[in-house]
Design a protein that fits this description.
Chain lengths: ~210, ~240
């Protein structure tokens, strides 16, 4: 079977499924093509789709550090190539997987070059979260939850959304947010807590 | 049963990658015991993903993309060649887990396998009192010490206070102090104001992972002589 014939066969079910082609569907197909067939063309499409977002994610934390942003994005994409077979669409959205890879690559970059020099190997620290041990019920809830979060974020008061963005995008600890923006640490913590409560991450009235 | 969990703040910093790696190491160990906190971290990661998605992405030129892609092309090939080798390594690791749980009876958290190959007995334990031993896993570049403590059944850890934060993850056995009984999986963070005096329960030895921000000081007349030793431990001579 020629390569082209293989692709025709592969694409057929999608053509029957939806009229307009959804870029997310295409990305899921590309990920599995990378995982199963080591398809470099699919990888290149993912590369062109993901790299601008990963670069922007890092430039937000380290404005002007474009060499770092390039290197982190490249490291993330190498992981996409190496670990495509571990991605579980039923467990997490593709962007959640991409976020975790980007976070890990940033932590590793900073460990080797930057402010958090450490001899600890960060990879096993998050690896075990990818264990496929969650039951079906949990998986379904996690995917449902991801949809709620995206909608919930838009409705948060500005100060709460800002503090989440400082923690996740700018890579600041609660303490650093407090110092950088001259807000008491207690206020930073309570904004995070309130935001996570509205996103139903913390049950109302929970003590943690 | 686990009753001492990381705070929401610590889980959030873990999920966003800003918690120090040494503490993340212990928190990750806790997650191996705690499905609740694991679910929480998954949720916190999807918050991160939603926030990442909302970043305005500037237009990247095709040339830029091609240059960056070309930059990793050779690593893509190489990693592909070695992927068969990787699969073998994974199988080997799985076998390891079985050996671990069957021969020594210890439940060794996966995240500690970068320091402990097969079981705790292989480590270089330094006896600091008749009932208390310590094995240093790592003295990190920022001065943080990652160590295992090991106390005999019914034994006491010497009175001590610390100059920085102290994280404890119970791995084997259990101990109690002023604030309760702690069992495997319990994650405890204490700051420098804290002076505590843990006593190990009678039913067996207790092994804990400890992450120390600064040198530990033992207090009280009997244990004062330990201090130079602990400083020696900490300085890594
Ligand atoms: Zn927990």
């Amino acid at each position: 079977m020629g390569k082209l014939a293989f692709f025709e066969q592969y694409r057929e079910p999608l053509a029957g499924r939806s009229v307009k082609s959804d870029p997310l569907d295409q990305q899921l197909i590309d990920i599995s093509a990378v995982a199963i067939h080591r398809d470099t063309a699919a990888f290149e499409r993912l590369f062109r789709a993901f790299v601008p977002m990963i670069r922007a994610f890092n430039l937000k934390a380290y404005p002007g550090a474009s060499l770092m942003a390039d290197e982190v994005a490249q490291e993330v994409m190498i992981k996409v190539w190496e670990k495509a077979h571990t991605y579980r669409p039923e467990m997490a959205a593709l962007t959640t997987w991409l976020f975790t890879l980007s976070r890990n690559a940033r932590v590793d970059y900073l460990r080797r070059n930057g402010k958090h020099v450490s001899l600890i190997d960060p990879e096993p620290i998050w690896d075990q979260l990818e264990d496929d041990s969650a039951d079906q019920f949990q998986k379904a809830r996690q995917r449902e939850f991801e949809k709620q979060v995206a909608e919930g974020l838009a409705k948060l008061p500005n100060d709460q959304r800002q503090v989440l963005s400082q923690v996740y995008l700018e890579g600041l600890t609660h303490q650093e947010v407090s110092e950088k923006f001259n807000i008491p640490l207690g206020t930073v913590k309570s904004r995070v807590r309130l935001a996570l409560k509205s996103l139903s991450i913390v049950a109302k009235g929970s003590s943690i | 049963m686990i009753h001492s969990h990381p705070t929401l703040e610590q889980l959030t910093e873990f999920a966003s990658g800003t918690l120090p790696l040494s503490v993340s190491l212990g928190l990750s160990g806790h997650l191996e015991y705690c499905p609740d906190c694991t679910a929480q971290v998954h949720k916190l990661q999807s918050v991160g993903a939603s926030i990442m998605e909302q970043v305005t992405v500037p237009q990247s030129s095709d040339d830029d993309m091609s240059r960056l892609l070309a930059g990793i092309a050779n690593r893509i090939d190489r990693s592909d060649e070695s992927s068969a080798g990787n699969a073998t390594v994974e199988v080997a690791a799985v076998t390891d887990i079985n050996i671990n749980s069957s021969t020594s009876g210890y439940r060794l958290p996966k995240v500690l396998r970068q320091f402990v190959e097969t079981d705790y007995n292989e480590l270089n334990w330094v006896r600091l009192s008749p009932a208390f031993k310590i094995a240093t896993l790592l003295k990190d570049t920022d001065g943080t010490q990652v160590a295992l403590s090991r106390v005999k059944a019914g034994g006491a850890m010497p009175h001590h206070k610390h100059s920085g934060d102290e994280m404890t993850l119970v791995l084997e056995g259990s101990f109690s102090d002023e604030s309760g009984v702690f069992t495997p999986g319990d994650f405890i963070m204490r700051d420098s104001r804290h002076k505590h005096h843990p006593i190990v329960t009678m039913d067996g030895e207790c092994i804990c992972l400890m992450v120390l921000d600064g040198p530990v000081q033992f207090t009280g007349t009997f244990t004062r002589w330990l201090n130079p030793l602990m400083r020696w431990q900490h300085s890594g001579i």
